[in-house]
Each structure stands twice: as structure tokens, then as C-alpha cells.
Amino acid sequence: SDHMENIYGYLMKYTNLVTGWQYRFFVLNNDAGLLEYFVNEQSRHLKPRGTLQLAGAVISPSDEDSHTFTVNAASGEQYKLRATDAKERQHWVSRLQICTQHHTEAIGKNNPPLKSRSFSLASQGSANSPGVQRRPSQNAVSFFGVGHHRLPSGKRVPIMQPDHLVDVREMMSQAEGQQRDLIRSIECLPASGHLTSLDQDLLMLKATSMATMNCLSDCFHILQLQHASQQKGSLPAGTTISWLEPKISLANHFKNGAAQNFPAEVNKPASVREEQSVAEPCQLTREPEEINPDEELEDICDDKEDDLGAVEEQRSVILHLLSQLKLGMDLTRVVLPTFILEKRSLLEMYADFMSHPDLFIAIANGSSAEERMIRFVEYYLTSFHEGRKGAIAKKPYNPIIGETFHCSWRMPKSDVATDAGTNNSSAHCPSEQGTLPRDPEGQAEPDYYTVKFVAEQVSHHPPVSGFYAECVERKMCVNAHVWTKSKFLGMSIGVTMVGEGVLHLLEHGEEYTFSLPCAYARSILTVPWVELGGKVNINCAKTGYSASINFHTKPFYGGKLHRVTGEVKQNMTNTVVCRVQGEWNSVLEFTYSNGETKYVDLTKLSVTRKRVRPLEKQGPFESRRLWQHVTESLRDGDIDKATEHKRALEERQRNEERLRAETETPWCTKYFLKDGDGWVYHKPLWKTVSAAQTQQTDSN
């Protein structure tokens, strides 16, 4: 090709956190398919400081800025490079991609397919046997003991009878065991040498064997449903047969409040056996539990999340994961590696969005509809910094169905802004719309507000969470449901938050509907980071005020990170009463219609610690108790142990789903009720206030 030319020049190369970026002289050798670099141009005649084989490599422009790009070699080695400007980056990227494609295609033509390749791992410990010896009779399939079972010629496959399902289940279990052994054998291979765990064919073998077992497991599930329908005559109304998540290595789980006993494996740690065993039936009630805020203590847990940084050590894990993904693929059922996890559940993350309860309570103190809408926008935008823990590229635990999280906050009344923008030094006057019953013991009113929070995972497929928070003293509450949809976008992962929240200000008779932005994990092969994106709207039908907020994703060339803009307007007059701009994890600037400007530095904004019951007082389905062994292992830096505990919880959930499908038992939620397309808390404050008003009217 005319474009197959050797190019050379200076680029900046990222070395490590200590050394940082350094100028190096790079040479693209098209004939050899190599990218080489030297300390400087004068040392070009010497041996290169580093060399990358470009065959099978991936050349990726970075999302961070318009100058950076990465070269990911098939060996797992990576160069993170930076050009002087966008034009120079494009020149290097295009030439590298042309060279990579040319040499990758050449290897494909000159090498036979997998079925004729052979590997030798025999006698690795013997000094007399060469480690790179090849034997035609010993390929990867035969070495790992994967056999092919064929029917004798002339025999037909018998029609499957319902009573044969037991035999099928047994064969499935054996196949799952063989598949686990295969994966374990591949992952135990050395990181370097003739045959490594990163061998492209072995990665493909891992991916296809996993996909095959998942497919067989789904087919077996469909057979079970068909068997159940034959026994009852037909499938019940509303039943759907759909593809489920992987069911490999399934163990026990709670069966919607009923006890199911399964043998525990003796060779597993006691904590894992505990996770795979079932608690006493009396502990698994699905009746709503009233949590007394006085039992909750200020949270002393301070799990600071470190950024992932460069993911060099986990490159094989990520490459294996990427080998199974396709662009646009739904990641809901994909098990992500444990090392990317935060030490909290998604339900607790939603609670952390409430970490500024003073701003939340102050919404109701606004003297006008305009001020209340602006205050809600201010609270909304300041919630993401603590809820998302900044831009750290980690994800919380996926809640299991039935999981709950409870907490509360106590906020001194003197710290909450009043309608005049000052602190509230006295109790707010009761509304004429009705009051809640007084304390029967006539105790003095506390000098703090209490905000209570409860969240529940109400559905597993699709994964839907419901959460509810209320401040009884200020007669305000928020109810929301969120369905998290994840998609693979190549070098990024996108998470769409489908759902809606409603803030109720009962003293004013106002309801504010709102949605949530999308989240993106960028640069997943280099130094991952997170940004928010998309347009959200906040509306109050009664007052006619609305807000439009844009979370801007970083453009390919130039631009700032984490930028957000928005405006609040009165719909009737189409008048903009407030504009906002800045970064959602840094500084926000609010400009009001009277010309005044207000700056909010989120990094200096005080965070109120939530109050949580001690672990020993929590129920078995409460997030912190449920995930305690995973969290402890992550704190200790023991990723393998954390993975084992996490797998045990996921296996319990899958087994429960299978049992419910077989017995056609619907799942019963604990705190939230289905309401159309959404979910509503079973005892919301608007019902309590309404009942109090009715009671007061009757007594008068």
C-alpha cells in the first residue's frame, strides 16, 4: 500500500505514576510490523528501549483528550502515548492501524485454524524434556480432557420424555464441572512461554465453552417450563420463556422466604458455606419491618475508594471479558471482574445521593415556587459528587432480588436554610393543611430533622431498584424506581438509568418529577474513569416551573471533562429565571434573573454521615450484612476471596430464580408495590398526611 511507509518522531510515553510522561523517539517499522522506541533520535542506531509487535494489536484514540492514544499488543503489553496535537495523533493512529491490519491479515493467511494446531505441555518439570516440543497427538482439546461424545451410526436421538429431565440435569452438572476444570487449567498456565493463558485460541476456547454452557442451561430451563406446562395443561397467563443469565455452577439460595436445604461443600470457607446455606424460616419474613431511627448509629465505616489507576495486572481478565462481548451487547447478565467493585451495594449508592440532607430539607423552605424549583435543582446537581464518589471508575455491587438498605440522617434545624436564605433557628410553623399526631408521651420536639431512607431490589430481570426517603417534620418525601441498563460500547461501557423519581412537597401540594443521567466508564483498557452524560428534565405541573439539565460528555477533540449546564424557566412566560454551569464533581455556578451569582464548591461541601443499624441488628437481606464477606475481602485486598463470596451470593440468587420458575411462584416484594410501569413505597408520607387530615376533620 502507498500508506505503508515508515514514520518516526517524538511522542510522549506514559511510564508509571512516579515517572509520569517522558519524551521518547518512536519508529514505525512497517516491513517488520514493529513499533520501536529509543531514548532520543541520537540513540536510534542502538538497541531499542522497547518494541511492540503490531500483528493483532488494537490502536485506540483515548477519550481523555485529543492528543492521547494507546497501542494494545496481542501479548498484553501496552503503550500509552501522547502526540503534540490532534492532527499528529491522527497521523500516527492511521499509520499504525494500516500496519497492524496488514500484518494481522498476513498471520491469518499463513497460520492454520485452531483444529490443526497442537500444543505440548508435557513434562514441564523434567530437565530432559524441551518445554516447546510439539506433538501432533496432543492439542489443547486433548490436553484439557474435553471429549466429544458421538452417537453410534444409524441410531436416532430419542424424543425427550419429561421423566428424563433428571438424567439431563445430571449430565449438565458433569458438563459444568468439566467446563470449570477447563477454565481453571487455562488460567493456571504461565504468563509467558510457548503456551500462555493469554493465547488467543485459548481465550476463544474459554469464551465459546462458556457461551455453549450458557446456551445449554437456557435450553434446559425452557424444557423445564415445557414440562411444567404439560403437567398443568398449558402455560399460565403472563408466563414468558426468555433467555436467562448464565447458570453455571449453581448452588442454593433463598426461595422467597421459604427454607430450602442443600448440602454445603466442606472444602469452602465457613463464610462461603454460610452464604450458600439458608437462614431459619423465621428470619426470612417478607412483612415490612419498621426501622426505629433510634437504633441506628452514625456510620463509622469510611471506605475510601481508590481509583483503578492503570489496569496492567488485570489485563488478562479484561481481555478475556472483552473476547466475549459485542458492540451494543446488554451487560445486565455479564459477570464483571471483582477488582472493579466498590465496597458498597447499588442500593447504598442511591442512599449516598442524599448525603446533603440540609439542601434536601431546604427545598420545602423556599418562599416561592420559583425558589423551591431552584433549590431542588441545586440539591439535584450536588448529589452526584458523593453518590458517584467523584469520577472513580468503579461500580457498586449488583443488588440481589429482595435486598434492602435502610439508613437515616439527623440534621440540626439551625443548619437548614429558611425562606430568607438564613439558618432556621426555630421550628417551622405547622401548616394549615393538617398536622401529624403529636408524640403521645408529650415529649419536647427534637432540635433536629430526621430524613429516613429505604431501598429495595424489586426485580432481577430487568434489574430494578426502588428507593424512598422522607422527612416527616417538613412533610416532604421522594419516591423513585430505576432500571439500570448497561451496554458495551467498545472502549467504554454505558449505563442508562431508566425510570422516574417524584419529590412530594405536601405543605405546598407540589410534585416534582425528575430522571437520572447516563453514566459511562471510559478507557477501560488503560486508566478507567467515569463521566455522566445526557439530558434530564425536572417538572412541576402545578407551578409551571421546569428545569432542563445537560450533562456533557467530553467531545473527541478538546472540551472539558464533567461539564454540566442547565436552566430553570417558567413555562407559561418562557422566562429563564436561573442558569447553571460548571462541573458536577467540582464547582457549580448559579446565575439568577436578578443578576446575582452563587458558586458552590462541591469538594468543600459538608457531607452528613448517614446512620445505619449495626450488622448484628440487620436482617439477612440488608445490604451490608448480605455483602459483608465480599466487603471485608476487598478491604483486605484479597480479590480471589472476594470473588468466591460474590459468586456464592450470585449462585443463590440464580438457584432461587430457577426454583420460582419451576414452581411458578411469583416474587413478593417487601416495601414497594407495583404501580403501572413504576414502583411505589407501601406506606408513603402522602398517605399518612392524608389520613391525619381526615382524622383531624372527623374530630372537629
TrEMBL record:
Residues 104-136, 419-441, 639-659 are annotated as: Disordered. Residues 117-136, 420-434 have a biased composition (Polar residues). One of its GO terms (cellular component) is endosome. Residues 4-101 form the PH domain. Coiled coil: none annotated. PANTHER family: OXYSTEROL-BINDING PROTEIN-RELATED, OXYSTEROL-BINDING PROTEIN-RELATED PROTEIN 11. Belongs to the OSBP family. Heterodimer with OSBPL9. Plays a role in regulating ADIPOQ and FABP4 levels in differentiating adipocytes and is also involved in regulation of adipocyte triglyceride storage. Weakly binds 25-hydroxycholesterol. Interacts with OSBPL9 to function as lipid transfer proteins. This is Oxysterol-binding protein. It comes from Melanocharis versteri (Fan-tailed berrypecker). The gene is Osbpl11.
